[in-house]
Amino acid sequence: MSEDEIAAELFVLCESKAEEFRWIGYESVTGPDIWECVHAKYAKSGAPPLYRLVNDILSLKPQQLMHHLTMSAWQNP
Prior knowledge:
Layout: H1 3-23, H2 31-40, H3 50-58, H4 62-75
């Protein structure tokens, strides 16, 4: 798979996870929110292997996302 195809599949996965969060009541969560949360974890260490990205997206908990969004709001007013 090319990098563009992988990025497209990761976007679909993030959108799917966002939809899961919307089902449980987090109605304002978007796919880019999910990606930003997962991607921020690797900002300093560099790009992880694909399997780790997929695992991090699929295992993301609402509390982790809300913590990330809260911290981002405080850091970027």
